[in-house]
Design brief:
The structure is a homodimer of 231-residue chains. Chain A is an alpha/beta fold and 231 residues long. Helix content of chain A is 46%, strand content 11%. A 6-stranded parallel sheet of chain A has the order 3-2-1-4-5-6, sandwiched between helices. In chain A, helix 9 links the parallel strand 4 and strand 5. In chain A, helix 1 crosses helix 2 and helix 1 packs antiparallel against helix 5.
């Protein structure tokens, strides 16, 4: 194994907490009564179907900022954000560029980087990922993302394209993710797989509570992963 | 200005010294009488025309390892390397993945990274650049390269594609290069330009001895650049 590629949202960074905090700030400034976590959950709830419109070729490629804005516009009325002006909506979309990593992520990545090439492999576009990495100090060797291939995960083009860019065979690359469907797609393309247990949806999480198949590795966090790989 | 993108070969790393050292090692092991610097110069001499075969759509995209191998095969006989076996030739092609930075590069980039997004924008493919950056400690925020666009500089697709991936207007991006033709192409696409004085060809260098146009900045090295930009 030569390289580790990582899902970003939920696996490396806490999108739910970061988005909820941004919603809370915007709502307070405008005197709106909203449930910030309900907004974050509803927003992420649109995620899968919004990606699919591009992945299934129903429209030309647009990046995640565009999809996030469309989803926000669709959910705003139902969550007390109907009156938000354009500037506030853009501010909320930009909150997805300022997400904090889970506490183990930087230490784990610093250790893993000594032995392996490490890169994200996210549905977030390059600019979004650069912003997150720079702010959070994620020490990536490269930024890999689905916009390089103008589609979205779990399109196999993404996993195979990442291996091609790294000039590695799929069996030399491991995807690390907190999501079973992402790992299933990577596995189908021949990559190795590591499930990391996260609680990205909070205490009421109902999905991805554990590995649903016999992934190559199952770890508690990135420091655990580094130890398991001798890094 | 938000981002700086950097030419790699000659601007950040000493391809001539690194390649010559690898040639010397291979030649000594095989008892061959060669001039290592002449080989390096001849190899680089094929560079422009080999890139053009792809850039001008005379063939499908192939990466720089493929072009380097073809050029090596073409020059080997004339430079005392005709008897080299395949393994040795592959070793020499791989030498382009192990080039040392000029002495000012790491310090300059570390400082520039505090204020700007920094990325290479090289004809070297992602895997080659990851190898160089990892070995040399180049602290890039992202790896940008022409293989993302399946063409080579100075195709404008490269400069505009880099700006698109960074989600920046060309005027928010500066190309730093030791080559006037690279800067001319970047300028034509609306990027800012910085000429850095290098002696990549050694004491007998005849080209790119200085700026040939009024580039936005002219600097002696990357530490000078950091100081000029207040980083």
């Amino acid at each position: 194994m030569r390289a580790l590629v990582f899902d970003l949202f939920g696996t490396c960074v806490d999108w739910r907490g970061g988005v909820a905090r941004a919603v809370e700030v915007v709502a307070r400034e405008r005197g709106l009564d909203v449930d910030p976590f309900a907004v974050a959950d509803a927003w992420r709830g649109h995620y899968g179907s919004s990606l699919a419109t591009v992945r299934d070729h129903h429209r030309p490629f647009v990046d995640l900022d565009v999809l996030h804005r469309e989803s926000l516009d669709a959910l705003a009325d139902g969550h007390g954000l109907g009156g938000l002006d354009d500037a506030a909506r853009r501010e909320l979309v930009a909150a997805w560029h300022r997400l904090d990593p889970w506490p183990d992520v930087v230490e784990g990545l610093v250790r893993l980087k000594r032995r392996f090439v490490i890169a994200p492999l996210s549905n977030g576009h390059v600019a979004l990922q650069v912003a997150i990495a720079k702010r959070a100090g994620l020490p990536w060797d490269a930024i890999l993302s689905t916009d390089l291939f103008r589609t979205y995960k779990p399109d196999p083009v993404v996993y195979l394209g990442a291996c091609r860019l790294l000039a590695l065979d799929p069996a030399e690359v491991m995807l690390v993710a907190a999501h079973n469907n992402d790992l299933a797609a990577a596995h189908a393309s021949g990559l190795r797989t590591c499930f990391v247990t996260r609680r990205e949806y909070g205490p009421d999480q109902t999905r991805d509570l554990g590995p649903e198949r016999a992934w190559d590795l199952v770890v508690g966090d990135f420091v655990d992963l580094a130890q398991r790989l001798g890094a």
